[in-house]
Amino acid sequence: MSGAQERLAAARDVLAAWVNDFQEPEPERLDAVIASADLTAAVRALQTAHWGYLAAITGLDLGAEAGQLEVLYHFCSGSAVMTLRVPIPRQESSVPSICEIIPSASVFERELAEMLGVVVVNTPNTDRLFLADDWPSDIYPLRKDAFVDSAEKEQGA
Amino acid sequence: MSTDGSLSGKRFIVPIGPQHPALKEPGHFSFTVDGEVVTDASVRLGYAHRGIEKATESRNWTQSLYLLERICGICSHVHALAYCLGVEKLAGVEVPPRAQAIRVLVAELERIHSHFLWLGVAAHEAGFDTLFMYTWRDRETVMDILETLTGNRVNYSANVLGGVKFDVMPEIGDTIRRGLEFLEGRTHHYLEVVTTDQVFLQRTRGVGVMSLEQAETLGVVGPTARASGVIRDIRVEAPYAAYADYPVQPVLAEAGDLEARFIVRIKELFESYRIIRQILDTLPVGELQTRMPRRVKAGETVSRVEAPRGELFYFIKSNGTDNPERVKVRTPTLCNMASVLVTAVGHQLADMPMILAGIDPCFSCNDRTVVVADAGGAAYNWEQIRHYGIAFYQGK
């Protein structure tokens, strides 16, 4: 077993209490689907086990039909990449903050909040990170339908 | 002010930026000070945000390559490389070894240019303009090499999906070797200067110290992490492109101060020279490109490369069509910025430009939407901006 495979096996052990849906989409990658209520406990367990570092948080919009967003927490350890996938509803979407465990996640959470309109509960800083101060508060640019209305208006005009 | 010299609980905040806070790029910092000493710091980014992630969703796979390459004017190649490696993985395309070696060659040339650029900027922030001018003069050597090799100084556009655009001819190999010989001599000199010049050391030694524990907690990457003793180098940890054939020795330092960051980056240059020579000596023969399908199989992938500033992370999702479903870019500066805010506390206000420069921040990488609005306040979309641009230049 290679180093990366051992690391991923260790991640499975750490996460077993909260996750029963593991996928290996590619060699050296592990996806673990987890409920948002279990997120902080799982991240804390990963930290306690010194499993890798948080490399990024990605927000995915699965579209209005699916009615879901997905928040991906990518952890890396050597060449192994483990992703915690948190499915959340598209309306009133929220995830708990993990800043108490990983303080550097603050910037990732701010980006997630402004780009996809996900409320990050208890995140220490809710200021805009990238978007301009006068950006409209109800447009989340990375949502799939973010600019559909304005495009339709143009065509009608 | 009260009689004991304290500010009786009042806080003074010194705003720096958004125009050119130390570097010639935009970012806004608020430093809370007690006298000359910084007690708190915060940052506001996004002045160079261009909405590139969103823009990829309305472009095809090939167009997105050229767009992503323009995220950064310093490390354009690594963005294109991270994207290409990811998309090729999704499409199940095997890139020829010669192309992978040429990609590494350009990546290391880019690292040399980036580190020289940084060395100059950092020296300038310390008030050492002689060093700044010499390093930027020498940097022209590697810029000329890149231009000779690729036709461009900045957006080299070496990558295409499925391989590289150009070959490395033996004559160019000799030009590169001559250039590296000159640069290597200069690099030895710079290493001596930054470790012995007493005036310069007063600005760097023991300044902006980040311990190994802090570096790990803050999640810093690249030379900033390695200067604090954290071995975090994607070329070593998860070799991509041709790095498995041309292994890299990570350069580490223990001190975690500004001096250590100078030493790590300068020593990494020697490693880059060695790898480039090795590639020129043993460049595999073969094709430069593999045929790439126009549509990419549905799926998701993660692509990580070591940019000059640290780990560059791409998450790419395909829905099986001509266009990407989602491209997520996490640049190294975003990870390293948090360390500035923490290490700033307790230092003199005058040290702030140096501490900021110490992480080698890249704001254009970090921010990725300029909102272009007409006088009435209505925002333009991409297509309108394009038409406006064409009309503007035709009218000239």
Keywords:
heterodimer, A: 157 residues, alpha/beta, Beta Polymerase, domain 2, five-stranded mixed beta sheet, two-stranded parallel sheet, 4 helices, 7 strands, 27% helix, B: 396 residues, alpha+beta, Cytochrome-c3 Hydrogenase, chain B, three-stranded antiparallel beta sheet, 8 strands, 49% helix, 12% strand, globular, disordered N terminus
Description:
The complex is a heterodimer of chains A (157) and B (396). Chain A has helices spanning 3-15, 39-48, 106-116, 148-156; strands spanning 21-23, 29-33, 53-61, 68-77, 80-89, 94-96, 119-121. By secondary structure, chain A is of the alpha/beta class. In chain A, 40% of the residues are buried. By secondary structure, chain B is of the alpha+beta class. Chain B has a single domain, classed as Cytochrome-c3 Hydrogenase, chain B (Orthogonal Bundle), CATH 1.10.645. In chain B, 49% of the residues lie in helices and 12% in strands. Chain B has helices spanning 52-56, 61-69, 76-91, 97-125, 129-150, 170-196, 198-204, 212-218, 222-226, 234-237, 258-281, 332-344, 352-358, 363-366, 382-395, and strands at 12-16, 28-34, 37-44, 159-160, 163-164, 299-307, 310-318, 324-330. A three-stranded antiparallel sheet of chain B has the order 1-2-3, with helices on one face. Chain B is globular. Chains A and B meet through strand 3, strand 4, helix 3 and helix 4 of A and helix 8, strand 6, strand 7, strand 8 and helix 12 of B.
